[in-house]
Amino acid sequence: MSAQLRVATFNLRNSSAPDGNDSWPVRRDAAVAAIVELAADVVGLQEVLPDQLEYLRERFDGWQIVGAGRDDGVAGGEHSVVMVRPGDWSIESHETRWLSAAPDTPGSVGWDADLTRIATLVRLRSAGGQRVGVLNTHYDHQGEVARLESSRLLDAWASAEPDRSWILMGDLNAEPGSPPLKVLTDAGWTDAVPPGEGGTFHDFTGEADERIDHILVGTGLQVVEAAVSRHRPGGRLPSDHWPVVATLRLRA
To answer: pLDDT tens for residues 97-110?
Structure first.
């Protein structure tokens, strides 16, 4: 017997960025519509600031929404939010860890990273009793060593909990085949997205060459389908990244 799970990752673009006609108040309805269009059971979001989190809680009433601020482990700064749709899957437990040599220290900065970076770990259980883990993260945009070490950390965290299959998702600021992705695939993770799906970061142009947003799956999970979503609700770009979505099958 197997269960299916549809997951998605989406860099929402923070609300403090000076994006003019693409600023958060202008595109927030389109961002919500883009998330709805994904039809996912679990959605990992990056760059979510407290005002955006409040808006998401209003618009996705009934969903379980978790994640802590990277600055203080409570509400300060960007969150790597995990949203779980009401239905077959529910959250058993969750926590935030820092991508650094001191992962339990709020606000810690890792290696050569420019900014504080985090991962949200969520443990899920289905109505049928199946268990799965989700790692939602956002790697540093500058630190090459930090991206490598972040991959090693995440793999170690998942390996430490072999009681469930794990899904790793997020903005890894690295393309397929690059050293941070190779660390993961060499460790047994599978890139869910086919090579021909194109890029995800488009900087509010809609034209993306770089695929830096990823969904990777560990053992026990089979990829049914996966794609980059380029939905423009009402013709508006919902973010400066395209979301990635995958349907997965969990083996008993």
So the answer is: 999 999 999 999 99
